[in-house]
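Morning!

As promised:
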Amino acid sequence: MTPGAVRDPTLRRPVQARDVALVDLIDRLLDGGVVIHGDITLAVADVDLLYVGLRALVASVNTIEEKMGVRLSAHSDVLDNDRLDVDAFGSDSLGSDSVRSDALDSDALDSDPFHSGGAGG
Amino acid sequence: MLYVYAISDSPDRPEVLGLQDAALSASGGKGLFAIWSEHEEPRLGADEAALLKHERVVEALLEKGPVLPMRFGSWMDDPAAVLEMLAERRSDFELGLEQVRGAVELGVRALVHEEPAERVPALAGADRPGTAYMLARLNDEKRSEAIAAHIHEPLRALSRASTSRKTSLSGSVNTAYLVDRDDVDPFRAAVQKLDQAVEDAAIVCTGPWPPYSFTPAGSTP
């Protein structure tokens, strides 16, 4: 990459590099940047965010392991990719109904910008 | 409702579309602007496509000048509210833009390899599995800290600023650096050199990123 330009790297990197980068991207987008409202939401959407981060992390664990030759997964139920039902997280959007708990199904979510199960996006 | 992408010193909008393929607009004046797009409702799925669209707008802005990226999911009522926010936080934003002008963020991640128990002297005296476990974790922490300090030294010299980012993996390092564009290549070369030199860890450099880790703190009440 030339020093003077930042050219849409997230969309043009090879897929494997992008998998690893997605974790870093999500981390920055959701935990970094200028904050407008102090209570940024996410008291409610913490669970959604967890799934956003977790899905990306799971997707990239294999890549990191391959590239760096380290073992990250303790072969727990959560990180065992053979058993993990990725569809549980939703293929297009994260936080699908199958992982939504009663705590999230409240009216308060209607005005919540992170309501990922609803319309929009 | 307006979805805000970033704070900029210019009202010029890049030729990319925002979330839901909405056109970009700018509000502000006197060298301080916010870039946004308008939407019917403040709803969006926190899915990969939306995240990448937000990022694409921010990176397109970064190509033209300094930018303070907004956190994903930043909504405001209308242009008047945007102007009010800019007025309230003008000095912070102006300072922030100057601090990142001409620079990008680079991430450095290090994954410290586990040390086999046989090689850890402190564990020799551990008589119970629980004790051994805690001592092993303590040993990991110390090794991480030592490696982190070792990595940081040469990289500090090649950057304007740095800050730690959270990391959920134990025995790992995650640091963000603010680096002059001209120093990006030397910085990356330095990370590669560290990766080769440090046997106990795998070290990678990610980015360049817009300066998400170097934006002014504080929020609009």
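Chain A touches chain B through 59 residues (CB under 8 Å).

Hope this helps with the figure draft.
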